[in-house]
Structures are given as C-alpha cells and as structure tokens.
Design brief:
Shape: globular
Distance between the termini: 46 Å
Keywords: Glycoprotein, Leucine-rich repeat, Repeat, Signal
Structural class: mainly beta
Bound molecules: 2-acetamido-2-deoxy-beta-D-glucopyranose
Radius of gyration: 19 Å
Strand content: 15-25%
InterPro entries: Leu-rich_rpt (IPR001611), Leu-rich_rpt_typical-subtyp (IPR003591), LRFN (IPR050467), LRR_dom_sf (IPR032675)
Order of helices and strands: EEEHEEEEEEEEEEE
Helix content: under 10%
Number of strands: 14
Length: about 220
C-alpha cells in the first residue's frame, strides 16, 4: 500500500556526503519501502551503506550502476523486492546477490548483461521471480537454477539466446513460467523444467519444434 506522505531524505545536499552527484531516497513510512530510482547513482556500495537495515523493498531502477560487488547486501537481509532495472550492468559476478535470503523478486530488466557467473544467484533461496528481459544474454548456464530452489517465473525475453538445456546438472523442478519472447532459440530441453506450465516463444525466428524434448509423461 502506498502512503500519501513521503519523507524525503537527501543524502547529498551541497557537499554533505561527498558524492559527485545527487542521491535522494524516499521512504514510505512504516512499510520498509525505499525508492531511489532515477538518481544518477553509479556506485552501489556508497549508497547501500546509507540504506536502513530493515528495508524490505528497494527500487534502484534507472541509475548508472555497472557492477554489483559481492557482499553488497550483507546488511539488507530482509529485502523482498529489488528493482535494479535500467542500469548499466554488463555482467553479474559470482555471489553478487549473496545475503538476500528472503528476496522474492529480482528485476534486472533493461541492463546490458551479457554474462552471468554460474554462482551469481547463490543464496537466493526464496526467489520466485527473476526478470532478465532486455539484456544481451547469448548463453545462460542452467546451473544457475541450482541456486534458486523455489523459482517460479524467469523472464529472458529480448535477449539473444540460442538454446536452453541442462544435461545432468541444472534445470528447475519448480519453474512454472518461462518467457523467451524474441530470442534466437533453436532448442530447449523441456525435461529440464518438469513443472513448466507456460512458455512464451514467439519471435524466435530459428525455432524448430522438431528439436523440442517434451516433458516426461507421468506414470
Ligand atoms: C526501520 O527502522 C527505523 C529506525 O531505524 C524505524 O524508524 C522504521 O519505522 C523501521 N521500519 C520498519 C518498516 O520497521
Ligand atoms: C565505490 O566507492 C567506494 C568508496 O566508497 C570505493 O572503494 C569503490 O572502489 C567504488 N566502486 C566503484 C565501482 O567505483
Ligand atoms: C521502480 O521505479 C520505476 C520508475 O522509476 C517503476 O517503473 C518500477 O515499476 C518501480 N519498481 C517497483 C518494484 O516498484
Ligand atoms: C521491472 O522493471 C521494468 C523496467 O524498469 C518495469 O517496467 C517493470 O514494471 C518492473 N517489473 C516489476 C515486477 O518490478
Ligand atoms: C564465478 O565467480 C567465482 C567467485 O564467486 C569465481 O571463483 C569463478 O571463477 C567465476 N566463474 C567464472 C566462469 O567466471
Ligand atoms: C554493453 O556492454 C558491452 C560489453 O559487453 C560494452 O562494450 C557496451 O559499451 C555496453 N553498452 C552500454 C550501453 O553500456
Ligand atoms: C534433457 O534434460 C534431461 C533432464 O536433465 C537430461 O537427462 C537429458 O540428457 C537432456 N537431453 C538433452 C538432449 O540434452
Ligand atoms: C537463424 O535464421 C536466420 C534466417 O531467419 C539465418 O540467417 C540464421 O543463420 C539462423 N541462425 C542460426 C543460428 O541458425
């Protein structure tokens, strides 16, 4: 619920904190929500250290963050929603989200991500939705799903993926929805996602049904 009263905290009024840019945060009193989008933030570490420990929803959309140093979130273990869409992330390091043990939704839409380390999502044991729409992903390791035991929805639309497969390791037994709209998908091994209920595959010009493996029929 959005309260009408917003408290504005100016972290950098005329030289107070020594950043080279303006950084304002808005608290939604009593909700644990924090909004700091569109503030020209480039250095995540500087900003996160100023955010209260009990924040549950953090919106850092439309900033200029290009790297997430592992360990960044150690004091924000109560975060449930994290929006880092429309930043300048080009790759995700191993352990980039470690510490976010109750995070439910991670929005990484509209960055420039072309590489995800196979342990980038380690520790996201409650994550339900992972949004990676509009990035530059050409490959994604199915091993990332091993870090996401309750994942339900992954949006990989508008990337340049060619295939999704898992072999002996990786895949997800909880994933229900997979969006792959507008990629270059030629092959998916659906056996990797036995709980899948919905898949979006439009605008994949190289898609060929003959290469799909259907999920195993029970019994
Ligand atoms: C978070 O902690 C601050 C004090 O540090 C308190 O004023 C605020 O009400 C707390 N918010 C929530 C949602 O518990
Ligand atoms: C962010 O700022 C900290 C100092 O507050 C500095 O140690 C770190 O190198 C900076 N990170 C980047 C990516 O510039
Ligand atoms: C974050 O803010 C942007 C606008 O800057 C908005 O489009 C987006 O929906 C917000 N995200 C959340 C989770 O509220
Ligand atoms: C994710 O980010 C995009 C781009 O900022 C925004 O349009 C969308 O509403 C966000 N979705 C959620 C669920 O936060
Ligand atoms: C992934 O990150 C870990 C550190 O967290 C590092 O040891 C490993 O080499 C990285 N893997 C790749 C393929 O870059
Ligand atoms: C996106 O990342 C690539 C490296 O993978 C880099 O060359 C390019 O400048 C980045 N583009 C933007 C808009 O940040
Ligand atoms: C498809 O995934 C299943 C389950 O992980 C695996 O056993 C099988 O080898 C995969 N098939 C192909 C063609 O990759
Ligand atoms: C995908 O299809 C286009 C024609 O629509 C073709 O030019 C291209 O070589 C194909 N790419 C792959 C990886 O099969």
């Amino acid at each position: 619920m959005v309260r009408t009263a917003l408290f504005l905290l100016l972290l950098n009024t005329s030289g107070c904190c020594g950043f080279g840019f303006k950084s304002c945060f808005m608290f939604y009193p009593g909700t644990g929500n924090m909004w700091s989008s569109n503030q020209n933030i480039a250095n995540l570490t500087d900003v996160l250290s100023k955010i209260p420990d009990n924040t549950t929803k953090l919106n850092m959309s439309k900033n200029k963050i290009n790297v997430i140093p592992p360990g960044s979130w150690s004091h924000l273990s109560g975060l449930k929603y994290l929006d880092m869409s429309q930043n300048k992330l080009a790759y995700l390091k191993g352990g980039a989200f470690r510490g976010l043990g109750v995070l439910k939704l991670l929005n990484l839409t509209r960055n420039n991500i072309s590489h995800i380390n196979s342990s980038s999502f380690d520790g996201l044991s409650m994550l339900q939705s992972l949004l990676l729409n509009r990035n530059k992903l050409g490959t994604i390791s199915p091993v990332i799903f091993n870090s996401l035991p309750v994942i339900q929805h992954v949006d990989l639309s508008n990337n340049i993926l060619q295939s999704l497969s898992c072999g002996d390791s990786g895949g997800s037994s909880t994933l229900q929805r997979l969006d792959l709209f507008s990629n270059s998908i030629r092959m998916i091994n659906l056996s990797c996602f036995p709980a899948l209920q919905h898949i979006t595959l439009s605008f994949n010009p190289n898609w060929s049904y003959s290469l799909t493996c259907l999920p195993p029929t029970p019994g």
